[in-house]
Write a structure and sequence with these properties.
The protein has 341 residues and is α/β, with parallel strands linked by helices. It has twelve helices and 14 strands. The strands form three sheets. It has a six-stranded parallel beta sheet with strand order 2-1-3-5-7-13, with helices on both faces. A six-stranded mixed beta sheet has the order 9-8-10-11-12-14, with helices on both faces. Strands 4-6 form a two-stranded parallel sheet. β1, α5 and β2 form a beta-alpha-beta unit.
């Protein structure tokens, strides 16, 4: 039986080599991902490492490879609504490389943001991921020591930057296409503040889909990201006598307010009016009655891609440009008329 590592008898790389009947340098190459080693030998060494519960010395590994195996995540999303699923995706990408994450809440002043950056650089992190509560453009980081940076769920004006973003334009197209497939012809869009990049891109995607289908443009109601905005906006439209059989809402909270107002009017959902939203925040969508159809932006997948991009930059690869992560529709009872037949 292979011995396990403990405080009194720590397993060394020499023990691994002996148990696998290979040289110490071969074990080192497998652990560091260097050299040309056959798949059979890699599998054998990996099996021995797992069986012996080997834990390499982090200090020795850092000194040998001149890395700290840590990265920083700078988030200005104070509520964590978007950054937490992104963090889960980042961690899944970093797990195999055994890289840890320092999470910094940088939702305060510019001075606080700078303090977090200085702290991360003092820790000699191998890279930094910057994320936010919205996709709007921000100032890029210019770090004197050229620490690799990836931007996730936020954009920058820098041709050399690597940005991983949700496909908001495609989300608008998808939401509108779904309502059209449900037979909707008179669609309205109740959304958040006009200056948000995501609001503009989603509206543009919706308009393109309507034009492609030969349907008229829709009333566009800007406002806050709140249930109250959705409630008031749809009531105002109905009071004006505007014919409505489909509603696209800027987020799930707005969608919640729309559903409440339609219930009170009364309008049958989805019989009279179909409703589809954005974000797929299940805390809201599953509590709505009927349950709310919503576009999911795959934030965990977005984080995983950002983590992989940062690893590649740390390894010296030239990663730059923009990656648009596709979205998908999570259907609920609020829009799927024909699936209920």
């Amino acid at each position: 039986m292979m011995k396990k590592a403990d405080n009194k008898n720590r397993i060394t790389i020499k023990d691994i080599a002996s148990a696998a009947n290979v040289s110490i340098s071969t074990v080192s190459k497998v652990m560091n991902g260097t050299g040309s080693i056959s798949q059979h030998t890699k599998a054998k060494i990996t099996r021995v490492i797992n069986d012996m519960d080997y834990r390499p010395s982090e200090l020795a590994r850092s000194l040998h490879q001149k890395k700290t195996y840590t990265i920083g995540l700078l988030s200005s999303d104070g509520y964590g609504r978007f950054s937490l699923p992104i963090l889960k995706g980042i961690e899944s990408a970093l797990a195999e490389a055994q890289i840890s994450v320092f999470l910094c809440n940088a939702s305060g002043s510019p001075q606080e943001f700078k303090r977090h950056i200085d702290s991360l650089l003092a820790k000699h992190v191998d890279g930094i991921i910057v994320t936010a509560a919205k996709t709007d453009k921000r100032e890029p980081l210019y770090l004197k020591n050229n620490t690799p940076v990836v931007y996730a769920y936020t954009d920058v004006d820098d041709d050399n930057a690597m940005c991983v973003l949700p496909d908001d334009f495609g989300a608008g197209e998808l939401a509108c296409q779904h309502l059209i497939e449900q037979g909707c012809k008179n669609i309205v869009h109740i959304t958040g503040p006009e200056h948000f990049m995501a609001v503009q891109q989603r509206a543009a995607g919706c308009q393109k889909m309507l034009m492609a289908q030969g349907l008229p443009g829709f009333p566009l109601c800007y406002g806050s990201w709140t249930s109250q905005h959705g409630y008031s906006a749809i009531r105002d439209l109905l009071a004006q006598g505007i014919e409505i059989d489909g509603v696209i809402t800027g987020n799930d909270l707005i969608g919640h307010g729309v559903l409440q107002a339609l219930y009170e009017y009364p309008k049958s959902v989805p019989g009279d009016v179909s409703v589809v939203s954005f974000d797929n925040w299940q805390v809201i969508t599953e509590l709505c009655r009927p349950t709310l159809s919503s576009i999911d932006f795959q934030l965990k997948e977005l984080g995983r891609i950002a983590g992989e991009c940062l690893i590649e930059k740390i390894d010296g690869q030239d990663r730059r440009g923009k990656i648009m992560v596709p979205c998908y529709l999570q259907p609920g009872e609020s829009s799927c008329k024909y699936s209920q037949a």
